[in-house]
Amino acid sequence: MDGDTIGDVFAKAVAAHGDRPFLTVPRNEARAYLPAGVEITYAEAGRRVQELIAAYEARGFGLGHRVATLLENHPDFVLHKLALNTLGICCVPINPDYRAAETAYLIDHSEPDLVLVLAAREGQIREALGLCTHAAPVVICENFAATLPPAARRADGGAPTPDTPSSILYTSGTTGRPKGCVLSHGYEVASGERYADMGGIATLRPREERVYNPLPLYHVNSGILSLIGVMLTGNCQIQPDRFHPQRWWREVAQTRATIVHYLG
């Protein structure tokens, strides 16, 4: 798969597995979004990603741009990432637990062309931007299409390749400032392919698995390894908002999970 981009992988998955479930959010009445839960098929995700692509393109966003996202574990994170990467835009996820100064550092360091945020997190991002030297427009995810501004600079020509940056993931910063790790399309696809082929107790049988992953989507495990792994095998990722010790076995049963991810 050395020639495939993330957009290629997703397009092939939609074509091959359109009727299969792709993303599931467990029911959780205490969650601020989608309290009843939701399940999205590959075909539905494909339609929604194409709508996002059209909106970004219409505003001049494309290859070479960067978009920072503060979307928690909302399924819109996955849909926007796939739309952005298909266009050659680099996705920069923001840890929602960052303090304002940490988020300001990430924004000044990655210099995004846009910040996409859940309405509930708008105040948090505005506070961080007040500490930044880099200015970036903010768009509320729930009102995305109506409020997306034109890109402030022209996109590069051409289409994404396996060498195109797809994500910048920031480390925890335990020994200093967080490090921005630039991941390419080729790296993410190869990582997902390796996970899909690993075998063992968590073998991803084609079109048979439902992977419950309570880890954050700004983390490589949930946002890349299992996500691309399920796309490559026509399987489903179950994405709760986070790990809840008192809920997770109930959610595993409710969502009919066959594989569980966690870091001890």
Low-pLDDT runs of 5+ residues are: none
Number of strands: 11
Structural class from helices and strands?
A: alpha/beta
Number of helical regions: 9
* End-to-end separation: 31 Å
- Rg measurement, Å: 18 Å
Question: What report would you give on this structure?
Answer:
The protein is α/β, with parallel strands linked by helices and 264 residues long. 38% of the residues lie in helices and 17% in strands. The protein has 9 helices and 11 strands. It has helices spanning 6-17, 42-58, 75-87, 100-110, 122-129, 144-147, 185-197, 220-233, 248-254, and strands at 21-25, 38-41, 66-70, 90-93, 114-117, 138-140, 165-170, 180-184, 210-212, 236-238, 259-260. Strand 9 (210-212), helix 8 (220-233) and strand 10 form a beta-alpha-beta unit. The radius of gyration is 18 Å and the shape is globular.
